[in-house]
Design goal:
The complex is a heterotrimer of chains A (about 220), B (about 325) and C (about 675).
Chain A lengths: L7 H22 L3 H26 L3 H28 L11 H23 L9 H18 L3 H23 L4 H29 L16
Helix pairs in contact in A: 1-2, 1-5, 2-3, 2-6, 3-7, 4-5, 5-6, 6-7
Chain B lengths: L1 H31 L9 H10 L3 E4 L4 H20 L15 H21 L3 H32 L4 H10 L6 H17 L18 H4 L5 H26 L10 H28 L8 H23 L2
Chain C lengths: L1 H17 L8 H29 L3 E9 L2 E7 L1 H29 L6 H19 L3 H19 L6 H32 L4 H6 L4 H19 L8 H7 L2 H27 L4 H23 L4 H28 L3 H36 L10 H4 L1 H14 L6 H14 L7 H33 L6 H4 L6 H19 L1 H15 L27 H19 L8 E4 L17 H4 L1 H6 L6 E6 L9 E6 L2 H21 L7 H20 L1
Antiparallel strand pairs in C: 1-2, 4-5
Chain lengths: ~220, ~325, ~675
């Protein structure tokens, strides 16, 4: 159904979906690590807003719990951890990308169009009015992956990984009224553990090779050149 | 016939109201910087002073230099007659749609750049070179934003666009949100305001628009300055009426027209204040950061178009 | 009657080539006869083609010449008539321009006769291509056109670069011709005959239709100059005489577009939307790459050649949109796209030939071909400057001139992409439109540079400061083209109404709403969607100018203008070296779009060997470096390997014959 026939709340969900996509692009475009963490926190806030809206309009109270977990983890705890990490490792410098920012943004745009094309037959299976957002969530996942492969510093890659998870969560919330609670809790716990493990890993990496630039790992290879 | 008279009156309002908008922005900027500042009607005094002054032209300049101010001013006035300011449905709106409007502003800019090169100085060439570079990068963003709007209303005619939005109940279009953000960035670049160009600078190496009109004096300079103020008002009215169309008169009765004028004045005052706040808070970017700025504007408009295709059409 | 006029166009062109051979002793006689007959051919082409277009006629004739089983079929229909009109217009102006221009070759090392001979044959070949209605006549006329233009490009063959450029041109023309022939072959195989009527009626399966389309796309694209098949254009146009460059760029490229339209819309008939997607993509790429490469050139004619690549790209964008709409069942929108492409053909023929004629005048009068050595010519050559300015404004697609109308129609066609059901295509078409907007803005930037550096400011070389205006003939031709540019910009509704005749020839529906609101308004699709009142635009600009002028010049007051020196920041007198050069003007764009060009830039500060320092900047073409040179090297390497057969030893050659004989005897006995 066209946009004009949806009630205001569902239009708001679509607007928030577009803003989440925009925040993904902002993640691609940010150069400084601290701004990257803040943008990631904003993406979490948008996700929280969407979950609350879906909870309110669909009358499924368990989504409120999901929203609260998102707020606690994605908006407060993980950004706080990452910020502490950044301060301890003292890496507030510029984050370089491979290939130049304009090319990466164009690749992001192409990914959005590609995910729309891929998702077209899947759209038919959902009965919610906001099923168009499946394409947006797939795009957020793919852009997160793009971030992982085009960034040099490991912290930026972690944020890319987290934003992939954001995309999956958004897909679940908007297309199917959320995942079963057990799955939800499991994934949230996984993400939490991953964040802590990454922190430990970064210290080891920095101690081992003297920097967090993952291209320096290229020196590990079988054959002597 | 009534429509044509009204169109003429509206164009006159546009032309004679433009200096007031420029003056308002400057007054708010001065206030924000804790200065007294000239009153908002100071540009009228400046224009009158310039009209009475002697014209001095460079000996290396040609006819292009002398006809450019008139041509630029006339084309900008024609562009302003096309934009619905107080009422829609005026016959002048059918002369040109939004793509033709962009074409008018491009024609004015073409002659402005030629005038910059005409005196045979390095500053003029520098201004022209920078201006056409910024303009080339702003055009795709502008067109993408316009297309996003046109795809929703299925028209490029400005009166039809505003009419469509007035007739339908309030909708929250994500594509419009993005297109609005992108078009605001493009408008700042095209009208030469901070952070792209500083309209109040006196250092020639930082100038873009001012460098092209460096050699002008007297009534020629007055026409060029007036044209620039008119261009700012055109973009302001476009942004105000396309994204907040409520208040625009649909018929030509006296009461809706007065209400339209009042609504427009309010919207322009708000937009002017926002521009002044942005100009005070931001610093001018170096020239080679402008492509990234305009790239951001293009991405915003592109996202708007993609949101329309993905989210709003089923 | 119009058929006779079309034949007169061909015959007069042939005569203009062949007759002067009998007057070869006197250069003046050669000039007069050749260009006089060429002008007659142009006039006949305008009247014949225009008549066929305006009247919507289709006339077919079969001549008893040709192969025994395939007589020469000729046909004049609205499409051919439209392109005949284009060829005739530019030929007429070339005939006005020619006599004064070719005077400079009379003192040169090469005789004048080959130039006029091959020009006449070239124009005759182009006209015959348009009239041909069977594959054999088409290919003969096509080859005539290509080979004669080779001789024209190689006219000043004393220079090595000219010979090389002509060779590349001939090579690519032959390869393109081969692809076209193969395309015709596919259709003839299914149609059972070589005449166009049989090919139109043929039932071609989808796979073979796509193969035929690709062959024709490559073949006609090579002649039209789409990226990546464009490399001959920037080499051939600068070396040819300027009126020949105008003819080649203005009309020969359009004849290639005519061939493409005829092949796809007439001979193939059912159009698949994927073909339109390919044309759209290639067109957008050509447009943006053409203009970016043009921006970096400082040889005036090479710059104009790259702009031809850009405009052909815009034409292909219009054709691509038209094919997409035709393939998805929107015949009215397909008509809009086709009309936009045809209008751009007309506009490009007019303003590109105007620009090339102007460039020729500048070259002839000032002796300079490098922009960085020109300047201030507006004072020395005022009429040429005004006409060149009109050409610059038209090619930058600015209202109220003609270039704007066709770009506007292309944008309107692109905007209707929302009518398509496919969302992906509906999202890609606005991206192509944004690329087109970028192209238009960059073209305006380039022509500000060209006009500003060439005509305005101070003169950068001695020869430019003493240039004089050209003779009356060239000026008259350029003024005529300038007026036509304005006319076709101010009367678009009339033009679109007649172009619709062409569209209705191939598509089930035309576009009747475009002209439904009267001659004043152009309303493709509907007045609510978009409207453009071109005469009112011109009137509005004039009215506002008049009012401003009257207000600022009250009758009882004198408004003097004092002339003084330009602002020099207190540093002392300005000289011409302090101005921006063409290379300096485009430096920001060069830095922003850096990876698009292969740039070699060297700066050596002042030292013992170079007391003033040295700065070198070379910008090549990626397509040439990465595609054509490797292909060339591969071909040469293969040829060298195969050349091992030629041992030089006579016994080896006898052994070849001996073993071939043995082999054949073996084969026969099996």
């Amino acid at each position: 159904m066209a946009l004009t026939q949806l009630p205001l709340t569902e239009q708001l969900v679509l607007t928030l979906a577009a803003l989440i996509l925009f925040s993904s692009f902002l993640l691609l475009a940010q150069a400084r690590i601290v701004s990257l963490i803040h943008t990631f926190a904003w993406q979490g806030i948008l996700l929280f807003a969407v979950t609350c809206l879906m909870a309110a309009t669909s009358g499924r109270p368990h989504l409120f719990i999901s929203a609260a977990m998102t707020l606690a983890l994605k908006v407060f705890f993980i950004p706080w951890q990452l910020r502490r990490l950044v301060v301890k490792l003292d890496i507030r410098r510029e984050v370089e990308t491979v290939g130049g920012p304009s090319l990466v943004m164009i690749a992001g745009g192409a990914l959005v169009l590609f995910s729309y094309y891929v998702v077209l037959p899947i759209r038919e299976l959902s009965f919610l009015a906001t099923r168009n957002t499946i394409a947006i969530s797939l795009a957020v996942v793919l852009i997160g992956m793009l971030m992982i492969i085009t960034r040099r510093k490991a912290v930026a890659q972690v944020i890319g990984f987290m934003s992939m998870e954001n995309g999956l969560f958004f897909a679940a919330v908007s297309a199917t009224y959320g995942m079963p609670m057990v799955v939800e809790l499991g994934i949230a716990f996984d993400v939490l553990v991953a964040a802590i493990l990454f922190g430990i890993f970064f210290f080891q990496l920095r101690a081992g090779i003297g920097s967090l630039d993952v291209d320096h790992l290229n020196r590990l290879h079988e054959v002597d050149r | 016939m009534k429509g044509w008279i009204l169109a003429f009156v509206q164009t006159g309002l546009f032309v004679f109201g433009a200096p007031l908008l420029a003056g308002w922005v400057k007054w708010i900027k001065c206030r924000l910087q804790s200065r007294q500042g000239p009153p908002p009607w100071q540009p009228y005094r400046d224009l009158r002073r310039l009209f009475n002054k002697e014209v001095v032209i460079a000996e290396s300049s040609s006819t292009i230099f002398r006809i450019a101010p008139y041509l630029i001013f006339s084309v900008t006035v024609l562009a302003s007659s096309v934009v619905p300011m107080v009422a829609i449905g005026l016959p002048t709106s059918a002369i040109a749609d939004v793509i033709v409007l962009v074409g008018f502003l491009a024609l004015a800019r073409f002659f402005l750049a030629l005038a910059g090169m005409d005196a045979g100085t390095a500053f003029g060439g520098m201004g022209s070179s920078r201006e056409v570079t910024i303009a080339s990068l702003a055009e795709p963003a502008m067109l993408m934003g316009v297309f996003t709007l046109a795809m929703t209303v299925n028209s490029t005619n400005l009166a039809s666009m505003i009419g469509f939005l007035l007739n339908h109940p309030f909708q929250l279009y994500p594509s419009f949100v993005f297109a609005a953000m992108g078009l605001v960035l493009v408008a700042v670049a095209e009208t030469g305001r901070i952070p792209v160009d500083n309209p109040a600078t006196h250092l020639e190496l930082t100038m873009v628009h001012e460098a092209m009109i460096l050699e002008y004096s007297g009534r020629y300079l007055a026409l060029m300055e007036w044209g620039a103020m008119l261009k700012l008002m055109i973009y302001g009215v476009l942004l105000a009426n396309l994204f907040c169309p409520w208040g625009v008169a649909v018929d030509f009765a006296p009461l809706p027209l007065v209400a339209g004028l009042a609504a427009l004045t309010g919207k322009l005052l708000v937009l002017g204040t926002a521009l002044a706040v942005a100009e005070t808070g931001l610093a001018k970017m170096r020239l080679f950061r402008v492509p990234q700025y305009l790239g951001l504007a293009f991405i915003l408009c592109l996202l708007g178009m993609l949101s329309h295709v993905i989210l709003e059409v089923s | 009657m119009f058929w006779n006029l079309a034949c007169l166009a061909v015959v007069a062109a042939l005569a203009s080539g062949l007759l002067p051979v009998f007057f070869s002793r006197s250069d003046a006689a050669v000039r007069t006869v050749a260009f006089g007959l060429l002008g007659l051919s142009g006039l006949a082409g305008i009247l014949g083609g225009g008549g066929a277009l305006l009247g919507g006629l289709t006339i077919t004739r079969v001549l008893p010449v040709g192969l025994p089983w395939l007589h020469s079929h000729l046909r004049l229909d609205p499409l051919a008539g439209f392109f005949l009109l284009l060829v005739g217009l530019v030929t007429l102006v070339a005939a006005m321009y020619g006599p004064a221009y070719v005077r400079q070759y009379e003192e040169g090392p090469q005789p004048l006769l080959p130039l006029t001979l091959f020009t006449g044959l070239f124009v005759a070949g182009m006209n015959l291509v348009l009239l041909a209605a069977d594959a054999f006549s088409f290919m003969i006329a096509w080859e005539l056109m290509s080979v004669t233009s080779y001789f024209l490009v190689a006219y000043q063959h004393q220079h090595e670069t000219h010979r090389r450029a002509a060779f590349i041109y001939l090579l690519m023309a032959q390869v393109g011709g081969l692809f076209i022939l193969l395309g015709f072959g596919v259709l003839a195989g299914f149609g059972g005959g070589f005449d166009f009527a049989a090919m139109t009626a043929a039932q071609v399966p989808a796979k073979w239709a796509t193969i035929a389309f690709l062959l024709a796309f490559i073949g006609f694209g090579m002649k039209a100059g789409v990226v990546p098949l464009h490399v001959w254009l920037p080499q051939a146009h600068p070396v040819a005489p300027s009126h020949i460059s105008a003819l080649m760029s203005g009309v020969m490229l359009k004849v290639a577009v005519y061939g493409f339209i005829r092949f796809v819309y007439d001979l193939l008939g059912t159009i698949h939307w994927q073909w339109g997607g390919l044309a759209l993509f290639v067109g957008s790429a050509s447009a943006v790459l053409g203009v970016l490469y043009a921006l970096m050139q400082h040889d005036l004619k090479r710059l104009l050649a790259y702009h031809s690549v850009e405009n052909i790209g815009i034409i292909y964008v219009g054709l691509g949109l038209s094919m997409i709409f035709a393939g998805t069942g929107h015949p009215q929108l397909a008509a809009l796209g086709l009309i936009a492409a045809l209008y751009h053909c007309l506009n490009h023929a007019l303003f590109k030939s105007l620009l090339f004629f102007g460039a020729g005048s500048i070259l002839q009068q000032s002796g300079e071909h490098d922009l960085n050595r020109m300047g201030g010519l507006i004072r020395r050559m005022p009429v040429t400057a005004v006409c060149f300015l009109i050409g610059c404004i038209s090619i930058s697609a600015l209202p109220p001139f003609n270039g704007f109308v066709s770009e506007w129609l292309t944008f309107q066609a692109a905007l209707q992409g929302t009518a398509l059901k496919s969302g992906v295509l509906g999202a890609l078409i606005p991206v192509a439109a944004a690329v087109l907007a970028l192209t238009g803005a960059l073209a305006a930037a380039c022509f500000v540079k060209v006009f500003g550096v060439c005509f305005l400011g101070l003169s950068r070389s001695e020869r430019c400061s003493t240039a004089t205006e050209t003779a009356r003939g060239p000026l008259l031709g350029q003024v005529l083209l300038g007026l036509l540019c304005l006319l076709f910009g101010v009367l678009p509704t009339w033009t679109v109404g007649h172009l619709e005749t062409v569209a209705r020839q191939f598509l089930p529906e035309g576009m009747p709403e475009a002209t439904a609101q009267g001659w004043l308004w152009l309303t493709p699709i509907s007045p609510r969607v978009a409207s453009y009142g071109a005469p009112l635009v011109l009137f509005g600009i004039g009215l506002a100018w008049l009012l401003a002028w009257l207000w600022l010049h009250p009758p009882h007051r004198k408004m003097p203008v004092r002339v003084g020196p330009a602002w020099d920041c207190g540093f002392g007198p300005l000289n011409a070296r302090m101005q921006y050069t063409a290379t300096a003007f485009t430096m920001p764009i060069r830095r922003i779009f850096g990876p698009v060009w292969p740039i070699r830039e060297h700066f050596r500060p002042a030292s013992a060997e170079e007391p003033r320092g040295r700065y070198d900047l070379h910008i090549d073409d990626w397509v040439w470096l990465k595609v054509y040179q490797p292909i060339g090297r591969l071909l040469l390497a293969t040829a060298r390997r195969l050349a091992l057969i030629q041992g030089g030893n006579i016994r080896t050659y006898l052994a070849y014959s001996f073993f071939t004989l043995l082999f054949l005897l073996l084969v026969v006995s099996l």
